[in-house]
Amino acid sequence: MEPMDKHMHDASECPGKGAGRPKAADVEARTQELLHIAGTLFLKNGYTKTSLESIARAAHVAVRTIYVKFGGKEGLLAAVLANKRHRFFRSQPMETDTRPLREIVDDFAHQMYALITSQEAIDLQRVVLAEAPTNPELAEAFWNSGPRMTREMLGRFFARPDIRAQMRPDLPFDLLPCHLMSTITGELVMNLMRPHHVVDPEKAKRDLEGRLELFYYSILPPKT
Fold this sequence. Notes:
CATH architecture of the largest domain: Orthogonal Bundle
CATH superfamily of the largest domain: Tetracycline Repressor, domain 2
Number of strands: 0
Order of helices and strands: HHHHHHHHHHHH
């Protein structure tokens, strides 16, 4: 067995050796370490210039292990993105939250804005924007592992009977997920194209709250 594979191998690869399969917690910890290292290298070097070999060396695993678990580099990137999204949405149970619509959306919007405007997220989005024309699979993995899943989750939220009962009945409900995400992101795309632009956090917060007021004005019944 290669030295780089000693920290992350399946017992089936080494019959007759060791004391059986590793514990589930150990496997999960090693997987999380691999995803963290892969994400760091993707951000540092870009998707194209990051090879599976370099990720395997840094994570002390075999390239074969990455192929078995993720199917290759595209699958590994998708797993990195899905993992980041999962960590965020564990604290965002929008499909079961029983609070009023406005409270749920307020919390989601502020936490989502903090997530997508973090330096790590901005760097990743810049990587995708720069490399998407020559690597369409990168853009597809990014879309499927983040924005698409978020919009589907918001679609299920806005489809809840108790949530719909709080909104105007004549809304194009299928457009609400995109409407809300556009409200949250604001001028994010423009800021991505200005790498030296410094955003004032207090002004950004006020602007977000102002956009949310417009969102609520467009979906909630008029106050009587």
